[in-house]
Amino acid sequence: MEKEFKSGFVTIIGRTNVGKSTLINLLVGEKVAAIANKVQTTRTAIKGIVNRENSQIIFTDTPGIHKPKHKLNETMVETSFATIPDSDIVLFIIEATSEDIGRGDRIILDKIKEAKRKTILIINKIDLVKSEKLLNLIDIYSKEYDFEAVIPISAYQEKYRYIILDEIEKNLKQGPAYYDIEEYTDQTVRQLAEETIREKALKLLQDEVPHGIYVEVEKMNLRKNKQGEDIYDIEATIYCLRDSHKGIIIGKNGEMLKRIGRAARIDMEQNFGLKVNLKTWVKVKKDWLDNDSIVNKFKLK
Fold first, then answer.
1. Residue 201 and residue 205: Cα distance in Å, rounded?
2. 289-to-69, 81, 190 alpha-carbon distances in Å
3. 177-212 burial: b if 16+ Cβ within 10 Å, else e
4. Residue 255 pLDDT
5. DSSP, res 76
6. pLDDT attached to residue 136
7. Distance in Å from the first CA to the final CA of the chain
8. By 3-state DSSP, what share of the chain in percent is helix, strand and coil, each rounded to 5?
9. What domains are there in the chain, each with its CATH number?
10. What confidence tens digit (pLDDT) does each residue in 110-161 have?
11. What is the pTM of this model?
């Protein structure tokens, strides 16, 4: 007898910098979310799609929960919480190094309780703690909510991918495939390009420039080169908050901007499966963090 096909929407939620984007990329098996060792790397709800033999799992990677300081932060937090009631399963990710339930995790937990969603607790970064501390943390959280499962992981290790996917599939209901089986994200190529450039900028700039970077692809054109190969011509602008930041992003003799562009181009060519001709510029837009026309782009659609 053929197994019934299952499908569902799974929200990945947690505080900033707990490894959500790393986890969704691991689960999907493709690069769908920007990863950088900085808070608030993810600014909008990004979907990743996993097609299995008997199921389709649609993941939403949400912005990290943090204290809002401006309109963009407020929008990011609203987006994260808005996904919980509409999800079939929640993956609540916390850090193994936690001593107790912190303020941010408590807020998330209360939202999960309020929505009464099926939830799997993912404890990330277990390589950083001893087993006694991990067991104590599991005990603390298990007393707070009836989780479907508690899975301790290290989000960089492939073996945890199948453990988590199997647990999710077990908890899904019968349903159709919502997306084509060839798709792995609902982001457009333009959005993926913008995310890739921003990720490379965050990684290469380290702590020299605060998180006030916004990337917008101005032009995107698919054509064939002289060899008959498909090639994307992409023109993008990196917006920053101050003139001093602009100088840092460009770098001496334009070297930093070249490094950002080169790293982004290589990543895009691997992800898109074709050649990319990338041109980047840097402009100052001092108010963009509170600019409604920009911030609205990060709202949940």
1. 6
2. 10, 20, 21
3. eeeeeeebbbbeeebbbbbbbbbbbbbbbeeebebb
4. 94
5. H
6. 95
7. 39
8. 40, 25, 35
9. 6-174 (3.40.50.300), 189-298 (3.30.300.20)
10. 989 999 999 999 999 999 999 999 999 999 999 999 999 999 998 778 889 9
11. 0.62
